[in-house]
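Q: Structure tokens for this one, please.
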Amino acid sequence: MSEDLYPHYIQALLDPDCYPHPVDTVRLVQTHISFVLLAGDFVYKFKKPVNFGFLDFSTLEKRKYCCEQELALNRRLCPEIYLGLVRVNEDDGIINFDGQGSLVEYGVKMQRMPEDRMMARIIDRGELQVDHIQALVDVLVPFYETAERTSEIDTFGTAEAVSVNVLENFDQTQNFIDGRVLTQRQFDCISAYARSVLAQTDIFQARIDAGRIRDCHGDLYSANICLADKVYIYDCIEFNERFRYCDVASDVAFLAMDLDFHDLPELSKLFIDRFCVLSGDDGLRRMLNFYTCYRAYVRGKIGLFTAADPAVDAEVKKTSQEAAAAYFSLACRYAEQG
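A: Here is the predicted structure, written as tokens:
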């Protein structure tokens, strides 16, 4: 994508001289909802003015609120990474941070983590080990034990509430069925399986009764984990409580699915086995296949959305479509197993 199509403040912030700290080069990374600028020792994350229904960043005030939520929620797991809210101002045509002039945008400032220790990079190098999985579980078990649980949060664990999250994925992707990235057979197989499980309301109520519906992370997979001097788990869902208020099984299923996606089934099994033992939550296994299928389908959907974004370049579009196809294939395998 040509730089002149970026928002004007993003164009300006691609200049290293815009920053109040040493920066040699600035690298821009895009998702379907964010502009992320890697600048020196820090990362600046800005929300795109999009509205997908389940996510609404359409106004400056909504983006500010979600930035504040992002800071508060992510500080539960890695407070040292999430540094604060930043304001982008424009003074006489010059873009600056927290300075003079009119307010242009809000963002989140983060400490930059070592890229070679990102879990996705470690997986790509074939270096993910048993001790990494054990360290992850050792962080996650106490996180869920202390995560908020209320009667309101419990309502998000009912079959009716879960069906809102699951079934909307099919509504949002039906027009993307193309016989290549997402086939009609996959769509029909996965949606039929999901509906068959959602009809079993008693298994969802059992999870509520067991106290397993919590204020979780919501986006727990390798792209949001850094295995450096300690385990850093970041970038939780801040924009919609119904994606974060969920069964712990749904949260950990995301990472189990991600390990399966990267052809690491033994480590996926180890992760679930160790988690169930240390948390005392063996009932999680009954829900695992359903939630891994759900999580794989969501990742496929995000790939479709990213590929359809006119702000991404041809290479990102291609890789997003390829990843989406692989996720839909995995979701279909889970559905067939179920």
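A few notes: Residues 113 and 226 are 7 Å apart (CA to CA). The chain has 13 helices and ten strands.
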